[in-house]
Amino acid sequence: MVSITWIFLGSLIAFTSATPTSRSGMFVRSSRSDVPAGFAHQGTAPADMSIPLRVALVQGNIGGLEKVLDDVSNPSSSNYGNHLSKEEVEEFVKPAKASVDAVNVFLESNGIKATTLSPAGDWLGFSVPVSKANEMFDANFAVYKHIATGQELIRTLSYSIPSSLKDHLDVVHPTISFAVSNAKNEISFTVPNGTFPSKVVPLKHNGTATQSGPQPASVPASCNSIITPACLQALYGIPTTPATQSSNRLAVTGYTNSWAQQADLSAFLAALRPDINPSTTASLQTIDGGSNPQGPQYAGLEANLDIQYTVGVAQGVPVIFISVGPNNSDGFGGHLDLAQYLLSMSQPPQVVTTSYGFDENTIDPNAAANLCNAYMQLGTRGVSMIFASGDGGVGGGQPKSCGNFIATFPSTCPYVTSVGGTQGVPETAAGLSSGGFSAIFARPSYQAAAVGNYLNRIAPLYAGKFNPNGRAFPDVAAQAENVEIVNGGVYTTVYGTSAASPMFASIIALLNDRRIATGKSVLGFLNTALYANPGVLNDIASGSNPGCGTNGFPSLSGWDPVTGLGTPNYGALASLAGV
What we know:
Elements: E1 4-5, E2 26-32, E3 39-44, E4 50-57, H1 62-73, H2 86-93, H3 97-109, E5 115-116, E6 123-129, H4 130-137, E7 142-146, E8 152-155, E9 158-162, E10 169-173, E11 186-191, H5 229-236, E12 250-254, H6 262-272, E13 283-287, H7 301-311, E14 319-324, H8 335-344, E15 351-354, E16 358-359, H9 365-380, E17 384-388, E18 408-409, E19 417-423, E20 428-429, E21 436-442, H10 448-458, E22 470-473, E23 476-479, E24 483-487, E25 490-495, H11 497-517, H12 527-532, E26 537-538, E27 567-568, H13 570-577
């Protein structure tokens, strides 16, 4: 794992402070010792090339907001469900006037007039030539190529800020972040004639194949070969009664020009949810030049999967497809822009599912913490942020050669719910399911007992390969193998935790519908309640997640870093939700 120089960022993060460079009056804000694996240095960036940069100011009272999140997310609290408004959250987040003034004076002294990029005023943006960026931040910006994709990034391995800004300026971004999004699913087979096969051979992964977990008598035998909405309804007890509340919304985020096709959704519903009108659609919102062109040539495997398993499982819940386009410079492929877009809404969608992420060791811990804090803000406003954990076992978002284990972000953010994967009936852990422990974020208090118990049981397994004090993930799981979709008019199965995330999100959206119908608030941030009530999930106690030349972590009874607390039990979750 790449060695990174950490700094203090907040109550959940423990770093050591960097040492100043020899340049007088400057303080190293962040650095890394080398380029992340998979990138190649291409040479010095042209001095006159203009690059977009963003700066994050120190937020006003983020510790206070974290306490609010815990309070409104704890079912035993009298404030449970009393989510904050947009304006109330911004009062916690907005930087102190002294910070705003100090940073603006620094920028203006360098001939820069910045643009405010966030509702709370904590992010500013501007563009400068490489030579100016190097001068301002004592940096050495160069060109780096991501070997697998050919994508080129302008980055530096270290940057500094004036020592006078240490308490005011938190992040300059993107500087040492090398974030490249992980694709989260692959085709396992296709059926050109457009008919559903009667038998499909499941994908094989390294690791144990022992099956465990519940197997309701009503689960069709075909679910051992292929997963459909009917399988999920039987496995997890999901009702077929349509949702009724129009104010309840479920958002699917789309990146990397993955587009959802209405023709494919209609074919999916006609074949697998004939009780839903096949003309049912998801509404479209776009940012950063996003779009959603229609036609078989535009079919996006990821987008089709996510839309079909939200519209097709969360029956009656209004679904929004948010297409994030390529016109962004946020250093997170649009994830930061998406978070700020949601925060700018007076009424954001109450559940958001995302099937994309990054290997944690490629990103700047400072920047990751600021994006994570945006998810905290959304949680205090009643938004459930749900992310696929990844498909590389203990090796990160995708399989790769590695020494130390690699975690994935945003799954390691303590304020999101990370979804791992299972396979088969009865369910066992899917070998692809990414899981482990953060090297950036400390373990949150809601995980202390469950994760501590697991670590005590496996010690000293893999000592030194992971951070045992880090935020552990995933939190929950759902089916992630041989999942049936329609893509470009072809019936196909896919595998990946990107299938599990929209499945779990759909169940939360259905529960929100029932809560709204009875005059209750939506569920919002889920983890505090789930870890306090693990019995509302189906415990998965076999399998593992191989990677980095190991068998990975074993799935055991209770929480584990493969399937989390387990898979959904709708009836038990509904009881916990009071509906």
